[in-house]
């Protein structure tokens, strides 16, 4: 049975004080929560340590928003997997559409980051998703095939257990446009079938596939109720504990 996993990607938002406050509020919302929902927040790098402190004693996990594949050296501006582990990260988000489309990251680069993270024992949320023109021209599946097969090169079944896939249609990110529950379910089922073909039915059944793209309290229940939607990667609505809490409540309702 897959557990629901709700993650907040704070992107390049918050300052020290607001990051600490938000983390404290999310931790409080999850205190004493015995439901089967996994929760994570991914603040900007400078606040990882402070947020980690606020989360201590809660089951809320810590994520980073990117990592570099080299361990150390002359890579100005980059942050190594070892550094993220050193400050207590459980996960790293890789291949986010903003990294792909704003920073120009390729599937080959993302794959190097995935391999380095898993090699060093850091779990990965790997984002995939198509642009609007790709969906409209019927290329969604081909785009996802290419992203999945290249980003997951060299990743065997054993290491896949430390990967979460986040399906994030680019046209739904930060736009207020959400994929309909049907669109999300169809694409998630496609991704799960991709995992069956590449690995096995057993492994595909065990992998968490999150949906991301304008998830909010009002649409979370319906999206998360879809059989192949195992959680949410939340951007904008993760920046307030009220809206993030609303999404967590929806997830808990489903998880029971
Ligand atoms: P959004 O972002 O919820 O603001 O659409 C989702 C994401 O980019 O992970």
UniProtKB/TrEMBL annotation:
One of the GO biological process terms: gluconeogenesis
Assigned keywords, A-Z: Cytoplasm, Gluconeogenesis, Glycolysis, Isomerase
InterPro entries reported for this sequence: Aldolase_TIM, TIM_sf, TrioseP_Isoase_bac/euk, Triosephosphate_isomerase, Triosephosphate_isomerase_AS
A Pfam family hit: TIM
Keyword Isomerase: yes
Pathway: Carbohydrate degradation; glycolysis; D-glyceraldehyde 3-phosphate from glycerone phosphate: step 1/1
EC number, UniProt record: 5.3.1.1
GO CC annotation: cytosol
Keyword Cell division: no
Enzyme class, spelled out: isomerase
Record-level Gene Ontology MF annotations: triose-phosphate isomerase activity
UniProt cross-references to HAMAP family, sorted A to Z: TIM_B
Name of this protein: triose-phosphate isomerase
